[in-house]
Design goal:
The chain is α/β, with parallel strands linked by helices. The protein has two domains: about 120 residues, Aldehyde Oxidoreductase, domain 3, CATH 3.90.1170.20; about 150 residues, TIM Barrel (Alpha-Beta Barrel). About 40% of the residues lie in helices and about 20% in strands. It contains eleven helices and twelve strands. Helix 1 crosses helix 4 and helix 3 runs antiparallel to helix 4. The longest helix is centred in the middle third of the chain and has 31 residues. The protein is elongated, with a radius of gyration of 23 Å.
Length: about 280
């Protein structure tokens, strides 16, 4: 995990929770400053992700707080497994508990969904990737979790690459401009992906030199037909309504990439508990 990744998100979450103003723990007075340890324990089977982000939540509240991971990022864990132990004052641990758990549960859920999709397409040569259907403000950490789960990082923002979609086609048709002419203004070094919905759009994209085609909301048999039509050297990315359960059908149809919005927008939170213990 790159230095600083997740720190801005953690700070925003702590501010949202007003963690430094925990009125409940303040009622304990000096007892809240007692040294304590907290244990993150798995309550189901999932892929662990987000432990470095959880550690940042506690360090922001108490620089001396320390989280020791018991499992590696990206490892499958079973019910009852100890994920990590965090040590610090009871005040810091109670104040950061919810934010740390929120990140750990969500990012582990994203990594688990991704790993299931990756395992589903194993042996086909296809890779699993994400879309931009991410939680506002959390894209960087969610894409990190996709990576931890074994997915490949795709276009992460509007500035990263050209993605020509249906509404761009509509504007193009209204303007009377050709796709090939529009692409002549492409900034150097940027990749190009063009979404196609018909054979005619596919042919237009190929004639314009496009080598990465996005087939959105198409059945596997249409993907297979377009793979044959495009020929070698063209990446066909399948997207739209794909889940870890049906991803293999698209991979076997010949899709080079399978992008799944559900990895980030619908991944169930991993079941994790936090147990606090005081030190004498």
């Amino acid at each position: 995990m790159a230095d600083g990744l997740g720190l801005a998100e953690v700070r925003a979450a702590l501010a949202e929770d007003r963690a430094a103003e925990d009125v409940t723990t303040r009622l304990l007075g000096p007892a809240a400053e007692r040294p304590a340890a907290g244990r993150f324990v798995a309550e189901g089977r999932f892929v662990a992700a987000g432990l470095p982000v959880a550690a940042s939540a506690f360090r922001e509240l108490e620089p001396a707080a320390c989280l020791d991971a018991s499992v590696a990022e990206g490892a499958w864990v079973d019910p009852g497994a100890l994920l990590a132990t965090v040590r610090g004052s009871a005040r810091a641990l109670l104040a950061g508990e919810r934010v740390a758990l929120n990140f750990l549960q969500h990012l582990s859920g994203v990594a688990t969904a991704t790993r299931r999709a990756v395992e589903a397409v194993a042996g086909t040569g296809a890779t699993i990737t994400h879309t931009r259907k991410t939680t506002p403000g959390l894209r960087a950490v969610e894409l990190y979790a996709v990576h931890v789960g074994g997915g490949v990082v795709n276009r992460a923002s509007l500035a990263d690459a050209v993605l020509w979609k249906d509404n761009h086609w509509a504007l193009l048709d209204a303007s009377g401009m050709s796709l090939a002419r529009a692409l002549t203004a492409l900034p150097p070094g940027l990749g190009v992906m063009v979404e196609v919905e018909t054979d005619a759009q596919l042919d237009t994209a190929l004639a314009a030199g496009v080598r990465h085609v996005l087939a959105d909301n198409q059945p596997p048999e249409r993907i297979a037909a377009w793979v044959r039509r495009a020929g070698p050297g063209v990446t066909i990315e399948a997207s739209g309504g794909i889940t870890p359960d049906n991803a293999r059908a698209y991979a076997e149809a010949g899709a080079t990439r399978v992008s799944i919005g559900a990895l980030t927008h619908s991944a169930p939170a991993a079941p994790i508990s936090f147990e606090l213990a005081l030190h004498s």
